[in-house]
């Protein structure tokens, strides 16, 4: 009835009403058409959402899980509102990833959680991970926000923090993104905040403080964050420059070293939590990468690692009790080999009680599997490095019970013969005069060594020459003629 009234200017004195009715009819018609279209559109979307379960299908295809319906519903209505209030292109330009990035930057915890959940689901989904990581990696603001979240310690924000940590872990798996992550100011320190060992660290990296218990956070999943933090650092350490940043992060290296701490009960307990063994393994892998770094950065890192008093002693516990965890033993031995590249570290390792004895025990242990062969070979390489230019370490090896005899016998073992020859070479070259009496059986092994090098097309002078020279000492006249006879009869003239 209201629309039928069209005589609004009857008493106004305005006489030109020729086009008034058509204009009003057109205006009212357009208004009614717009309202009708809105109602039809609303009915259509209600039909799609309620009857055809559109949002449920999207949630299922995106693999967002049970909590995904909240995210999808929020995304739909936000996108729809932008189309209504602004331009339709505002809604079309928004996808779930950009929507999640916006929510992650919100001040409200519920919205942050929705954003974190969406991004976490997408980066862990093979179908969407590539696009999601590429889009996140090109946004410095989003990376900075994710790094910032790593510092959150409120238990109520644990899920947000865990999701952000896993997203950063996926980002760090791509070289270009890893560089961008490490370039964020304070990124390494934020990642370090994920690592909780129950220890307090002061500004001196070679000291580790006392354990303390966070009584009000007993349900906090520290092991999950420890594993993720170590994984992120391991991925970042693939880049040489990032290794330097990790080494210079205050208090980080002592944390990493402390994760290698084990006990006999842990290593020999079949019911030990798998997460604890994983943490030890992951920390050893990270230390191995850092200790094998080249150049001045590598020297700095090896010195920093060896200066921490518990580094070698923790590895010693693994060598002593980790016979059922040969992967851990292998990693520990490889770390010792890398650290032994530096003279001070060699002496430090040798002065740690029992390390050389344990390495010899592993080197000579009975072998049945390829894994055991690999561990024995690695132990031989570590002993070779420790004996290089170190009189103290050489004397320790030589003075061991029946070590020289077993080394000579090992020259007939295809697995041990190369490292046995190298160890004997270093022992003969660098051991002190007080060990001369232990070398009486070495000259007897010359024919065996000669045969080995002949079969392998290697000149004995190349590898064993220093051993022969070391045997020819004024204090060891009884062996001079044996070595001379070997040189005259077996060494080729062109060498």
UniProtKB/TrEMBL annotation:
Gene3D superfamilies: Leucine-rich Repeat Variant. Signal peptide: none annotated. It comes from the Eukaryota. InterPro entries: ARM-like, ARM-type_fold. SUPFAM superfamilies: ARM repeat (SSF48371). This is Armadillo repeat-containing domain-containing protein.
